[in-house]
Structures are given as structure tokens and as C-alpha cells.
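User: Structure with magnesium ion, C-alpha cells only please.
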Amino acid sequence: MSINKKIIILGSTGSIGRQALEIIDRSRDKFEVVGISAKRSIDELLSQAERFNIKNLAIDEAKSLPEQSELNIFSGRGSSIELIKEIDCDVVLNAIVGSDGLLCTVETLKRRKVLALANKESLVAGGTLIMDLLKSGDKIIPVDSEHSALFQCFESEKREFIEEMILTASGGPFFGKTIEDLQNVTVEQALKHPNWEMGNKITVDSATLMNKGLEILEAHFLFKMPLDKIKILIHPQSIVHGMISFIDGTVKSVLAIPDMRIPIAYALTYPDRLKLNLPAPDFQKIGSLEFYVPDIKVFKSLDLAYEAGKSGKTYPAVFSAANEAAVEAFLQEQIKFLDIVDLVEKALQKHDTPNVIDIETIIEADKWAKQYVRITIAEEV
Ligand code: MG
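Assistant:
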């Protein structure tokens, strides 16, 4: 493996960013972190900079910055974009949460850097516009565990021979529940994921299955697969992460224990692999792997994702942004759990898509959807 891959980590104080630094810490001869960014956790950002001797930082909202410093600090809204523009690197890990990551994804691809993509919202919102930025040889390496698996299954295969792509879902904390059961679930209950350790937004998304909805759209754009060839199976053990079935009846899949460090490391080192000191699944202990069809009556997020994908244009952006605003309100206990997906549905119904689709109109649709959700909540409370 080429030594000293230069890495920029956007969202370094979040769950993915921290785990990436943990991986890098154990293989310091292979990576050099040349820049990190955070939205507002300045103290943690500074301590990461010290620990890894990182000189270039970006912070969107800082109460105060160190006065005399050897550091090169970009600050204010859009500081992460400045970081990518100014600092040379080999790989950008985009681990920002939500649509704030969109312009960073765009800038990384414009600069023709390898994009290790954890910020699925940017691909969902930008869709084909993002994929059109890729020139021959450029790569988006997904960090999302399911897409990492599909990406690996897809290697050296031709799209025309693919029958179906299957994304697995753990089912989240509310697998097997009825609508009645979900009426009054608390934030605390929604944040208890059975298998994965993740940030708050994605953990709530896993509980509503909005995460899987976003992942349907992510796979649709990333692999240029028709929506009707992307299927979801609930797989409570979270060992099989993705499967591709081919026209000859062969199925390829990637299996691993549910640990985000595996797909993060793969994205940072592709096409090489890194020794992680994590075990392969112990199949004797696991015993059986189960698969179920999701209950789309309870979890209507999946149907909404297919609909948003079929409508295309700015609808996927609205699907993602409305959810982002609704999850924020749920975490602040302003709305109930089931309101999240209801608000996404309403936003999709109310949205008027513009005639011209470009990054600006996508950003406008994103703003509109968040505003629509906030106003709707304010009116109903
Ligand atoms: Mg995932």
C-alpha cells in the first residue's frame, strides 16, 4: 500500500470521524491526516489536531478560536469547503451529517480527489448531478456498510448481468412492532440500536427505516441501478451487509461483524485492505442467519423512498431534508416518533419541483423542505 495517504476528514468529531482517527492512530505509517473539520465541537477538534499533529482545521460555528496558534484555521459556514479547496490531499472522508455535506461532496469531486463517502444525504440529494461530476478513473468509495458490501460485490462485474441488489437492514429497535406500539415511543427508546454504534441522527433513521430509504436512493445513484432492482431484507444479525444476485443465479455477498471501522478502513485504503484486529464472524456461535420482508405498512419510509426516487428531480433532496428537520424536532421532543415519516410524506406531496435541476435548485429544495417541516410543526403545536 502506498505509504502516507493524505487524508482530510470532514466531521472528525462525529461517530465516523472519531472511528476513522482511531483506525489511523493504529496505522500512522500509512496515513497522514492533513485536515479535519467540525461543525461546532472546537475543543475536541483542537485536541484531535494536537494528538495527530494536524495543522489545518475548519470549524463552522466556533464561540472562540485560539488566539496565537501555529494552526491554519478556516472558520464560518462553508469552512469545510475552504479546507478542501486549499489543502492538497489524496482522500476526502466526508462524514458530515445531513445536507451540509452536499457542497463538500461536489468540491471533492470537482478537485478529482477520492471521495470516501459517509454522508449519504449528499448523494441522495445531488443524485445524478453528483455522479456526472465523476470523470474516468474517479471514485466514490461508500463508507455506508451496505454500500461498501455492494461495492465489493460489484467489483469486476458488469451491470447488465445483475438481476437484483439486496440491501440488508437490522430492523432497528422497533422490528416486529405495530403502529400502535410505536405511538408513544421515546427518544431514548429510538436511540437504542440493537447492533450498531452510531450518531443520533442515523440511529433515529434506523428506527424509522428512513435510513434504509436513504440507502435505496444512495444505491440507485451510486451504482446506477433501476429502483425496481433494489430490494430490502430485514436481517437481524447484521452479518450479511449486501448481496447482488446475477442472471445465472449466483449471489455474491459480503459478510462481516457489524462494526463501522471495517467499511471506514476499506474506503480509506481501497483497493488495499488494512489489518484491523477485528474478528471475522464466528458462524458456529451465530448459528443462523435470518431474513424477513420488511413490514411496509408500519414502515412506510421505504415506499416513500421508491416514490421519491421515481419522481427524481428535487424529490430525493426533499425526502432527505424533510427527514433531517423532522429528526431534529423529534430529538428535541417537539414531535412524536411517527410524525417523522408523516412529515416527510407531507413535504413530498407539497413540493413543487423546479424546471431546472442544478446544485442551486437542489439546495433551495433542501431549504424549502426543512422550512416546510419546521413551519408545519410550529402550526400544529
Ligand atoms: Mg448503512
